[in-house]
Amino acid sequence: MLVLFGAFLVLACVLGGFLLSHGQMLALWQPYELLIIGGGAVGAFLSANPAKVVKAALRDALGLLKGPKYHKQDYVDLLSMLYDLFSLIRKEGLLGVEAHIEDPQSSSLFSAYPRLMREHHLIEFTTDCLRLIVGGSMNPHELEQLLEVELETHHHEAMAPAIAVTKMADALPGFGIVAAVLGIVTTMSQLDGDTTRIGMHIAGALVGTFLGILLCYGFVGPLGAAMENRVQEDGRAFECVKVALLANLRGYNPKVAVEFARKSLSAHTRPGFQDLEDHLKAPRAKAAA
Fold first, then answer.
1. Exposed/middle/buried for 203, CB within 10 Å: 0-12, 13-18, 19+?
2. Helices H / strands E in the chain, number of each
3. In whole angstroms, what is the distance from residue 235 CA to residue 232 CA?
4. pLDDT (0 to 100) of residue 136
5. Closest Cα partner for 58 from 160, 152, 156?
6. Mean pLDDT confidence for 126-148
7. C-alpha dist (Å) from residue 245 to 81, 176, 276
8. Alpha-carbon gap, residue 276 to 74, rounded angstroms
9. Which string of b and e fits 61-71 if b means at least 16 CB within 10 Å?
């Protein structure tokens, strides 16, 4: 909701300051200028990006209204799932998890975390990495290089919509200048007319420049930045899985491997050590009972 609140605050302060300085609100109502700027920017956005990026940009922009994809409890579940996987490997060997990673939808281990099962990309990333470990006999250094390449590719694809929106924001001042120039052209063709109408045309041309800059720095630019921040934040889940898998492959016991992964999370989403410890013990306490 901070996105909506920030946009409202920008609009309230800009228009409020204009009104308090004795400006006339109707002077800012220039629908044709807005058509030139908004239509031109959207047209350039559609021309510059493939359909999948356009759809992803709309999806990610609307996704900002829903809040972060992963909350602290989701990371608790993710760390617990990794702990269960590593414990099974430690108990039964790598072949013990083969059935689980081949068909995670029917796996009792993965199905214990229904919220994570809806994150198909994260589950697929986890199972693919485990499949490499089981069947590839990879050492930690080789796996780390491979995971870095995969995460970089994933990050690049996830950032594409945010970058596209940011580029559209950068184009808005230019289209504002286009609208202003067209307004001046209209004004120059009516120099022999009434001075009041000439003044209105000049004001409309200046509003075009104003709208282009306002839309760029007040709305579309911050939207692109918010989308970039969301991608960075959501990518921590994949980084968490990578750290845990590498730690496990290096021979650390499940609790230590999971602790490495917990340390890779940002402070505001990282579960506390004791909270995670209690969560890991709870199912076993119930089973013992």
1. middle
2. 14, 0
3. 5
4. 66
5. 160
6. 83
7. 12, 51, 18
8. 12
9. beebeeeeebe
With beta carbons less than 8 A apart as the criterion, state whether 96 and 88 touch: yes
- Secondary structure (3-state) at 177: helix
Tell me which residue has tokens 């250094």: 141
pLDDT of residue 143: 84
Q: Residue written as tokens 């590839």? A: 136
CA-to-CA distance for 77 and 268, rounded, in angstroms?
16
How distant, in Å, are the alpha carbons of 23, 75, 231, 235, 244 from that of 157? 45, 23, 10, 12, 23
Reference 158, options 70, 266, 230; nearest CA is: 230
Q: Are 84 and 109 in contact (CB under 8 A)?
A: yes
Give pTM, 2 decimals: 0.83
pLDDT of residue 53 exceeding 70: yes
Burial of 289 per CB tally in 10 Å (0-12, 13-18, 19+): exposed
